[in-house]
Amino acid sequence: MNQDQNSETIIAIGQLCSTADIQQNLLTCQKLAKEASEQGAKALFLPEATDYITTPGSPPTSLSLALPMATSPFVLGLQSSAKEYSLAINVGIHVPNASGNKVLNRSIWISESGDIVGQYDKVHLFDYAAAGLKESDSVEAGKKVGGPVETCVGKVGLLICFDLRFPTASLHLRSRNTQVLTYPSAFTIPTGLLHWETLLRARAIETQSYVIAAAQVGSHNAKRESYGHSMVVDPLGRVVLDMGGAGDVEGEESTLAGGKLGIARIDLGRVREAREKMPLMARTDVYE
């Protein structure tokens, strides 16, 4: 159900450093869910691969940790927290593919009643030789970008991390009246420094939507480190929340495992206002 078009809604963003310890990752998320509820948030946004992050180049390890949503203690635990706190949760997870030889990188929407009401499998996979990362070794690409999910914070389009570089995906969701775009992410530090904020603001500006990007942060293991800087961007491209990254504050590294909560407010009236004041009508008829 959509919120009133002229009211502000409090949302929470959880920034954390997931490891291969699924149980500890769940405990961190449940702590953040409790804090989000206490802050009056209607929804909690968590990063890509929140359930676990393994060492790059270890597909068997990743596959051994992935479970179907119906039997995953991680997913079931978050469903329980969502219901307990009447808090919607968007989170990135892994599930086995149909063949059982790879995983799917999935974003799910858990309603405030604890039900999974939306899901999306990452279409664009991150193969980045400079960082020794080849997602396609262990992940099967999703097959489609669908429409938005009707939620307590508006019509939400689910995308993931590297999808951020492909505006066709967000523009497709905009054509389906999406009001909020989500990009749960685990950006590398080199690409984050260069592109993260620019890409998030561009997607917000061209779709005149809120963009919410919960991000992994810090050192997950000896070979993997994430940029952080979870952000919320408004429909005009203004950054309304930037949660910072590893190393921004001296001594902060030791607290990353415990997670960090950010609070922001979104107002769907601003989405409507932006679109009414400057209608963006693509001339799709002129491209041959």
UniProtKB/TrEMBL annotation:
InterPro entries: C-N_Hydrolase, C-N_Hydrolase_sf, Nit1/2_C-N_Hydrolase. Keywords: Hydrolase. The keyword Hydrolase applies. SUPFAM superfamilies: Carbon-nitrogen hydrolase (SSF56317). Residues 9-268 form the CN hydrolase domain. Pfam families: CN_hydrolase. GO terms for molecular function: hydrolase activity, acting on carbon-nitrogen (but not peptide) bonds, in linear amides. This is CN hydrolase domain-containing protein. It comes from Botrytis galanthina.
